[in-house]
Amino acid sequence: MKKTLRYALLLALTAISLGACQPKETRIYDFTAIANDGSEVNFADYKGKVLLVVNTASKCGFTPQYDGLEALYKKYQDKGFVVIGFPCDQFGHQEPGTNEQIAEFCRINHGVTFPLMEKIDVNGENAHPLFQWLYSQKPFEGFGDSDTGIFMDKMLSGRNPEYASNPDIKWNFTKFLIDRKGRVVARFEPVVTPEELEPAIEAKL
Known about the structure:
Blueprint: H1 2-21, E1 32-34, E2 40-42, E3 50-56, H2 65-76, E4 81-87, H3 99-110, H4 129-137, H5 147-159, E5 175-178, E6 184-188, H6 198-204
């Protein structure tokens, strides 16, 4: 009996040891960013919430999506939903302003109240680590067959025929949905409007 007990204990300790050696799953809570006002944001503070992380721009054909994103934020905020915008100037030089100018533009023209971060790179050697992780979790899978999607594909393939083979961000207003456990569950390209995201968001709330 004692021998059996010792054996069971040994197995339990081995299992615990092996478990401790397993690599930790990266979640959004492992990242920080700088807010538009210069303060540090720790995403661990958003534990238990559903997040929509978006790279934004003020002079883009998709800029009116700010209105839809703000509407989503207002509609679902009380249920634990947060939109987080990351301005970026890597696509057509469509976000040329300073952080202060961007915040003022968003507030005056689109009534934005959801959190805005400082302007960052989302692609390349200076890409923010959060976005590197986001598109490693949900790589690019195409723009779809809508008229706008076909236009985007033609535009980008004309510049780089291999563009679709890379997982990274293709244009402004790419959206990543994060569940309450901090995992990336969906990626939506700019051609998908905020209004079209409601079913996916509601499914996670």
